[in-house]
Amino acid sequence: MEQQNHSEEIQELRFQLEEAQETINAIRTGQVDALVVKDTDGHQLYTLKTADQTYRVFIEKMSEGAVTINRDGIILYCNTRFAVMANTPLEKAIGAPLETFVPAGSKDSLEKIINNGWEEDCRQEILLKDGDGKDMHCLFSCNTIELDTGAALSIIITDLSVLKDTEKQLQQRNEQLEESRANTEKLNNTLEATVKERTHDLVISREHFKLLTNNIVQMTWTNLPDGNVNSYNQRWYDYTGKDFETTGGFGWKELVHPEDLEETAKKYYASLESGEMFEVENRYRRHDGVYRWHLNRSRPLRNDAGEIIFWVGTATDIEDQKREMDRKDEFIGIASHELKTPLTSLKGYLQLIEGYKQEELPPTVKQYIGKAGVSINKLQSLINDLLDVSKIKAGRLEYALADVNITDLVNQCIENAEHVFPSYQFEKQIAGNYIVKGNTERLEQVLMNLLNNAVKYSQTNKTVIIAVQERDNNVRISVTDRGIGLSKDQQSRIFERFYRVEDKKNMTSGLGMGLYISHEIISNHNGTIGVESEAGQGSTFYFELPLV
Ligand code: ADP
């Protein structure tokens, strides 16, 4: 009987427990707003202030944790979000002390904020244990609320970890930004300093250039790749008496002597086209109307890519030198004439002595006469050269033209050379017969000059090769030696009047007239003369004449 009573009691208690459980769920989900509770004083009605359905849904759905605690710090209520944050099942969280969910180091802070919270609304950052040993930064906002059962403290817990992470990232980004900003500033400062330095250098070098150009005796100019002159030095304005307005661009043409303008312009445009140095002699009109000869030279300035930026030119006054040259030419003309007459008589008398038959000449005297004859011949050829030079200058180097057999002429010259220079070997390379229109004596003079030079400038290797061949309707006669040779620079000048290579080691006699005269003769034959050579390796001098 007693056992049956017991089991009925247990059954009743289980029933009550289930009922309590259901009631709690009903309260949580807002299915009930009031409860009728039976206690020792009979039935009592409890209305639930927090039971408002709308607010309950808000609280359940919000992303913050919500906790209500009593004076003892026991959790009376919490939402699902808090249970997730604390990594604890909801039913275990309710009824547990809140401090269970904060790490040991934060317990004091929690106590303080709770005590404070009972006094007034407050908020503070506190760490929350999430059960995995990782602590979570949270913001606790406390408010007291009045429940029917007495005062309770409601705490809204906001997870700050994402915010903290973002803050951290933001800080890192800020630091990176600050670093980049500092680097940029540094770079900017360096750049500014460099620009300042360069500008300073530029100003100095521009002033340097100006000072230099204004102080040299030459007139200078700079022109753009299209030929327009964009600056002159002070000397130009002083000399011409004109300003930049009238002489800039192509205004300088007005100041060139009309007779020199065509050649000047031709060479100017050719240089702009080819990028090669511009060089021409011409006359510029001075402010008083007098023309003076100038030597113009201009070179291009290129950038790293090899493109021309501008040209720098100089015009040097050569009027005085020109006059000196003219006087020299005049003197050479007169002197060679004056020398020619006594020389001719000297030669005549020598021939008379040689042919004197009345008594036999002693052998020594005969020998002297022979030597005197050689010297007189040398003298005569020198005087002839001098006469030729002055004739060329005066434009009077004239001679009759006829058909000339080049093969015969070459054979004749080689024979002469073999006679005069017996220690040398002259190798012939001739095939065929070539006829040109020309003057035999003058062409012989050219070839003999080349053979003489070949001997004179190859004292060690004594072989000279003479070749005759046809080339594009021309006959080309060349003389090759294995002597001292010529550098590129020297090659460009050897056909000038009186030019001789200054070589202390290989000093030979001569006046630098032979090649000048030869050049003139060949040009008058509508031919070309030139040289191929390498210093120390020997030279090949050649001339080409149009075949008949
Ligand atoms: P020169 O009377 O001085 O020989 P040329 O007009 O014949 O005058 O020659 C001019 C210059 O050219 C010479 O002084 C010499 O320096 C150089 N030259 C001429 N021919 C040769 C050659 N075959 N080898 C080397 N240099 C030469």
TrEMBL record:
Residues 278-330 form the PAC domain. GO terms for molecular function: ATP binding; phosphorelay response regulator activity; phosphorelay sensor kinase activity; protein kinase activator activity. One of its GO terms (cellular component) is membrane. Keywords: ATP-binding, Coiled coil, Kinase, Membrane, Nucleotide-binding, Phosphoprotein, Transferase, Transmembrane, Transmembrane helix, Two-component regulatory system. GO terms for biological process: osmosensory signaling via phosphorelay pathway. InterPro entries: BphY/WalK/GraS-like, HATPase_C_sf, HATPase_dom, His_kinase_dom, HisK_dim/P_dom, HisK_dim/P_sf, PAC, PAS. It is an enzyme of class 2 (transferase). It catalyses: ATP + protein L-histidine = ADP + protein N-phospho-L-histidine. PROSITE patterns: HIS_KIN, PAC. It is found in: Membrane. Its EC number is 2.7.13.3. SMART domains: HATPase_c (SM00387), HisKA (SM00388), PAC (SM00086), PAS (SM00091). NCBIfam families: sensory_box. PANTHER family: SENSOR HISTIDINE KINASE GLRK, TWO-COMPONENT HISTIDINE KINASE. This is histidine kinase. The lineage of its organism: Bacteria, Pseudomonadati, Bacteroidota, Sphingobacteriia, Sphingobacteriales.
